[in-house]
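Standup notes
- DV: blocked on the single-chain target, sequence here:
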Amino acid sequence: MSESNVIEKVTASIDMCKAELLERGWTILAPDLLRDGPRAALAHFGRIIPQLNGEETYEVTLKPGFDKLPYSQSKNEIGPHTEAPVYDPPPKYLALHCHRQAQCGGGQTLLADGFAFHQSLSPDLQQWMEQNEVEFSSSAVPGVSEQLLHRARLLEEKDGARVFRFSYNQFHYGDVNPSESDMTSSSFAQYAGTPPGNIAKLAERFFYRHVIPVLIPEGSLLIWDNQRLMHARSEYKDPVRHLTRYWLS
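- DV (later): unblocked, structure below
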């Protein structure tokens, strides 16, 4: 196949991925679309921006010190959330480039539509989401005292587009990246019987009823709309699992 034919085929595949991303909120880029590297492929979707570590990439792989935490560098389950609710605006897209996938069947990326969740609520709770702010707090790494804080509505409009925010960890433990001491607190009790408490419970219930599990093939890249979809991760056992995460504006 000539180089021009290859380029034409890649362009058509990228266009198809963009259409999937627009329609359902997520898509997978196969290895042949990454032949010039993930950065070149991601340039078709947005601009890579720094993450909480100050870098443009973050390694999602097992690291010591997080054994008991719902954190990206542990093997534990992570509850439903949108990424970086303390950012204004949060990243438009998240991307995970899979180097080594867990061979145990776990480690799935779990997705569910936050806009559909909003529509599933009663009119009163829909209105609460649109009109009231929640304070989100995030430590860059669990246990670090310095936190980023941001008050925002769970559903708002930014630059003509809707933005959905949610964090299981925030509502349950008081921090997007909770420490072990945070996890022994009863942060959720303060929300009991309140609109945000009810919304949080309903969001978790909706998420696991409508979840789409994705086990990213090795060499492929999953990208999804972070301002629309909630995501989570299932527990896994295989310590070789390794992905690189990107945030896109």
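- Follow-up: Helices lie at 3-24, 38-42, 114-120, 123-131, 168-173, 180-183, 195-210.
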